[in-house]
């Protein structure tokens, strides 16, 4: 009986250690993802074209704040290059970020509130581990609009949106 109690205690300690190690591993992975996203934003702020796009997957997508901005990677590079070349890309700093890790620990999704030149924006996306580096696979940038101002904003964009909807419906 004494040996059985000792055995049970050992098993419980091992299980507890495994859970703590697993939690540390998840924390470490999320820290790596945070660092990668921070470096990605910093590369844009520093107008470092190579560093910025090296932190995106080869099939990366960037959805901008304008309804027409659905950029596949090569188109996004072409659009962005003049801004990077002038040394004036964009500057986003995360104010808050949530990361959700998929079971395989090679894909995660996230949302973040950003301090930008457009004031507070929301970014969200998917990040994938590629060759042992976390890279942005899909990113969505949205301008955060206070609920009290939605009516004004809708009024401002109504004409442009009407024209765009007509074009899209004709496709």
TrEMBL record:
Residues 33-146 form the SnoaL-like domain. PROSITE patterns: PROKAR_LIPOPROTEIN. SUPFAM superfamilies: NTF2-like. InterPro entries: NTF2-like_dom_sf, SnoaL-like. This is SnoaL-like protein. It comes from Olleya aquimaris.
